[in-house]
Input
Amino acid sequence: MQIAVLLYEGFTALDTVGPYEILSRIPGAEVVFTAAEAGPVRTDMGSLALTADLPLAEVTAPDLLVVPGGPGTEQALGDTAVLDWLRAADATTTWTTSVCSGSLLLAGAGLLRGRRAASHWITLEHLPLFGAEPSTDRVVFDGKYATSAGVSAGIDLALQLAGRLAGDAVAEAIQLVVEYAPDPPYACGSALTAPPTLLASLRASNLVVHA
Output
């Protein structure tokens, strides 16, 4: 089973690495990182790069597609080569998935029209522009499309996918291996629980561009 993870300049690291840590442990999984060109691709923070093993042109028939989000989403939405590749890759996938604002790329490629989709809270309002129905759920399954909310939600998405692909026992074993047992120190990990003043300040600050 080939799992293709899309990289582009300005993606968010955990959107990618979180699902990778889960999905790469599924028996028989082959993960390939791909971008417009092979080589290092910088994350939104600039201090970290991941390596694209293959260019998009050489990843033609993935079984599972993972599209991360990040501030670079806006520029990627204007890249016809990326959108064309997403449509072509989707034609072969069993699952087409996204984390955070990566759902905007799927929607921009026309893949989420009429479907429910999750995204980072700051970008949810943009999904209807591409014909998708925004959802505040942390993970949304609609047909073969699975989307998740911001950044850390990609781990939840990947665990649910692992269960569907390899069975609950495998998914539970993976969760134990990575010791995924969230116990956040603050009750503001969601736009639904965060204080309105905090939401307002983040919307007005530069901090939100790194989400």
In short: The CA atoms of residues 157 and 180 lie 13 Å apart. The mean pLDDT is 96. The chain has one domain: 2-182.
